[in-house]
Amino acid sequence: MLKVRGLEVFYGPIRAVRGIDLDIEAGEIIALIGANGAGKTTTVRAIAGLTPYKGSISYDGKTLPPNSAELNLRAGLAMVPEGRGILGRMTVEDNLNMGTYCRKDHAAAARDIAEMFERFPILKERRQSLANLLSGGEQQMLAIARALLSRPRLLLLDEPSLGLAPKTTTAVFELISSLRRDGLTVLLVEQKARQTLKIADRAYLLETGRVVMSGPAQDLANDSLMSQAFLGGATAL
Ligand SMILES: Nc1ncnc2c1ncn2[C@@H]1O[C@H](COP(=O)(O)OP(=O)(O)O)[C@@H](O)[C@H]1O
Ligand SMILES: [Mg+2]
Description:
Blueprint: E1 2-11, E2 14-24, E3 29-34, H1 40-48, E4 54-59, E5 62-63, H2 69-74, E6 77-80, H3 92-98, H4 106-119, H5 121-125, H6 136-148, E7 154-158, H7 166-181, E8 185-190, H8 193-199, E9 202-207, E10 210-216, H9 217-222, H10 224-231
Parallel strand pairs: 3-8, 3-9, 6-7, 7-8
Antiparallel strand pairs: 1-2, 1-4, 4-5, 9-10
Helix pairs in contact: 3-6, 6-7
The structure holds adenosine-5'-diphosphate and magnesium ion (MG).
């Protein structure tokens, strides 16, 4: 479904991503894990069409030009950015309305919003609240719901557990698993390696802009190098 080859991203003279290859098949949860600064966000932003890059990214066999975020969204590729990107001074409902802006099927979009309220009753309850009055977990649900309203086939999630309490993190991970059961393909970017590997099918471990390990999530979880570097260390959480 998505094929990334030789991806390189520069910030001025800094090469933040140094030649990444990555494949995503339909129906998978692919994990992209790595410490702070490893290049995870830069990679997903390139895939979402939000940054210039070298190398190639193709989606359903078609090359995605760099910086083509709107085109990518219309092709079914949606992202929930790091920090969630919700509009705190707008209501929950208006945030959801924003999620449908790229659609022309207004009646179906309205039905989808109603469906989101059924799926996330807390959002229905708080629909007139300003989004910044929601808890961190509720804001993450809102951000995911908003992304789903573009009817994506591939959802990119950048550190959805960031800043959330352990219980809330578990709820968000359960939600991600349920999205996959519904047929969505997910690229899950995370620092919380242990929990992420439990729900992912395959995983890539990034270190300073390079893939240093990849394979079935279970294999990475059992790898001794991986457990020394991550799962037992302070960054594992
Ligand atoms: N806007 C930017 N300008 C310059 N350097 C950046 C910028 N964004 C990220 N970087 C650098 O690129 C590297 C990768 O960052 P990032 O992709 O955010 O990593 P991660 O998401 O894994 O924490 C880091 O060294 C970071 O300091
Ligand atoms: Mg990041």
